[in-house]
Amino acid sequence: MATPAFANAPSDTRSDTHSDAFDYRLAPRELAPGAYVIVGLKEDFSFTNGGNIVNTGFLVGTEGVIVIDTGPSRRYGEQMLAAIRRVTPLPVVLTLNTHHHPDHFLGNQAFPPATLAALPDTLAALRGEGEAFNANMYRLNGDWMRDTEVVVPGRALAPGRQRIGGRDVELVALGGHTVADLVVVDHDSGTVFAADLVFNGRAATTPHADVARWLAALDALERLPARRWVPGHGEVATDTAPLHETRDWLRWLADTIRSAAEQGLDMNEVFAIPIPPRFAGLALAEQEFRRSVTHLFPAAEQAALAARTR
Q1: Is the N end or the C end of the chain the one with fewer CB atoms within 10 Å?
Q2: What is the dihedral of CA 144, 136, 109, 84, to 10 degrees?
Q3: Angle formed by the axes of helices 241-262 and 285-308, nearest 10°
Q4: Is 68 helix (H, G, I), strand (E, B) or coil?
Q5: What is the pLDDT at residue 20?
Q6: What's the Cα-to-Cα distance from 73 to each of 107, 148, 296, rounded to whole Å?
Q7: In angstroms, rounded to a whole number, what is the distance separating the alpha carbons of residues 127 and 121?
Q8: For residue range 282-297, what is the model confidence (pLDDT) as tens digits?
Q9: Cβ pair 43, 88 in contact under 8 A
Q10: DSSP reduced 3-state for 228
Q11: How far are the Cα atoms of 73, 89, 105, 220, 288 from residue 202, in angstroms, in the given order?
């Protein structure tokens, strides 16, 4: 399979000289009793950060641990498991991949295979694109990826509310960022792990986006009972500001691309469209805008052409 369009770093093939023994320095933060997050950097993938740009998390119940995403590499997964062990000796009873982007599943090797699970459409996407993602991550992150292999979960998740490991957890199946996006609601703490349906202080990525479906998912998220929100990228929030920020960016992106296609602009002309000042604080806004044009503009052009020929 060809290298996928999901590429969040410049194509640089130099060997890593800044890894400091490939230590991600993962530091779990307890948001509420038993609810932990590990916050990644608001950066592109690079040889310096080893792909540590993602938020992962875990929930500690009375009987076991629920892991929410496993990070970008085998090393990350192993170091995440070691960080969990510093918090609790309880066994991992469920390891979730919220969607099929590589920074969310390539640490799967570190966790008990029987615990790995994802939504059915995510499993299919992992089977179809996982190997290409892994190859691309080696190119983007260098030796941080050593010995990383694709491990597709063997268990298909069904949405719903249940007790898992002694916690009151609800699995919510949505989509729009990818074909299937899992949201984890920890009712014990009021924490919503929204994965990449929500970005905070960072422009959203769109390699598999259905923007209309994504906007509908944000509406559904806003109706959930929550005291705090864990985005897929960016800081944890105690209000819905990151949902509004993500929605605003996506609406502007979709409207801009659609309008440009209707005006007959070419892609280079779309690249030159200025980003509104209200997005000045979003990390990687310029880079993600250009990537999103590459991802989304061809379909907008086709739709505009079809409308003109009716």
Answers
A1: C
A2: 50
A3: 40
A4: strand
A5: 60
A6: 5, 6, 28
A7: 10
A8: 999 999 999 999 999 9
A9: no
A10: strand
A11: 22, 34, 21, 21, 9
Q: How far apart are CA 23 and CA 213, in angstroms?
A: 37
Q: How far apart are CA 213 and CA 225, in angstroms?
A: 21
CA–CA distance, 260 with 244 (Å, rounded to integer):
24
The string of pLDDT tens digits covering residues 220-253 is 999 999 999 999 999 999 999 999 999 999 999 9
How far apart are the C-alpha atoms of 80 and 69, rounded to whole Å? 10
57/70 Cα distance (integer angstroms):
8
- Find out whether 233 and 199 touch, Cβ atoms under 8 Å: yes
C-beta neighbour count of 27 within 10 angstroms = 9
Which H or E run contains 161?
A: strand 160-164
Q: How many CB atoms lie within 10 A of CB 198?
A: 29
Q: What is the 3-state secondary structure (H, E, C) of 25-38?
A: CCCCEEEECCEEEE
Contact (CB, 8 A) for 72 and 107: yes
- The sign of the torsion formed by the CA atoms of 173, 186, 229, 55 equals negative
Q: How far apart are CA 104 and CA 71, in angstroms?
A: 5
Cβ atoms of 270 and 293 closer than 8 Å: yes
Q: Is 41 helix (H, G, I), strand (E, B) or coil?
A: coil
Residue type at position 242: P
Residues belonging to the chain: 310
Question: CB-side exposure of 165: number of CA atoms within 13 Å?
Answer: 23
Contact 288, 203 (CB under 8 A): yes
Nearest to 205 by CA among 77, 118, 291: 291
Which of 119, 62, 52, 113 has its CA nearest to residue 83? 52
